[in-house]
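input
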Amino acid sequence: MLELGGIIILGILAQWVAWKFKIPAILPLILIGLLVGPIAAEFLSEDGTKWIEPIRNGDEGLFPGESLFYFVSLAISIILFEGGLTLKTGEIKNVGPVITKLISIGSLITFFGAAVAAHFTFNLSWKISFLFSALIIVTGPTVITPILRNIPLKKDVSAVLKWEGILIDPIGALVAVLVFEFISVDAGGEFTKTALIEFGKIVLFGASFGFTFAHALNLILNRKLVPHYLMNVFTLAAVLGVFVLSDAFAHESRIIGCRCDGYGFGEF
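output
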């Protein structure tokens, strides 16, 4: 109980520190995580244990077995939904083409350019280099959004940075998953075809489930089929439902599903 309470308290404390010093929240979150984890085990604990240990000795600890994976996955679904809610098409009337080029051409340049740089600079294999480049496609909405809150920018510039940071998040994740699948198995012609089909299923099921449930949720709430005091928890349950259902049809499509659900519901 102490560890679980500590996670919540320290997480909120990190958010307050970020607001106080006008820095991205991810910085104090990382520092606090290091403090209660590796640093505590190395320098602050007499018995060499971490102050907060999610998994200890396999099936022991705060999240035994695969509980930590499930907990993090559900948390990601809420974060993606919340990010999608902030997107409004009215913000990009003048900068839509710029955003499109950033998440398409910009992603390709980052993907291939970073792979070449990693291969020749760090002497990594081409497989690992491309996996690395796929991981760094994402600019990070958890970093960009707090910066935009603290730095006054022109409306169009702010819109470009916000949309690019949020839209490229699922794109980078899907590319990383696809590259990892390719390097996990010998990439022959048949495997390439199968991988591309799976990638298409992820996009199809994720987008269709996301926008369909967003429209249905908006219809339910507008017709007052759910009482006012249950609206928040009902919406949360719907988001988790989209997350689980989408992943059941196509693994990893939940990423797109929750982002599209948030964007579609926000637009309605």
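quick obs: Residues 80-267 form one domain.
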